[in-house]
Amino acid sequence: MGDIANSKGGIAKSKGGIANSKGGIAKSKGSIANSKGGIAKSKGGIANSKGGIAKSKGAKANSKENI
């Protein structure tokens, strides 16, 4: 088991990483995606979303805005 997907009212999809969702969408491929009401997509980095869209490919992406 290398996948961890935690969902509290949202969608969490993990392929080898950690996806945490609290009302939003979190998609992780080998890294960490955290969503609190927004969309967080991670491919090798860390994506944190609080109401906006955060996409990470090898780095860290943070979103705190509504788009």
TrEMBL record:
Region (Disordered): 1-67
Ranges annotated as biased composition (Low complexity): 1-20, 33-61
The name this protein goes by in its record: Uncharacterized protein
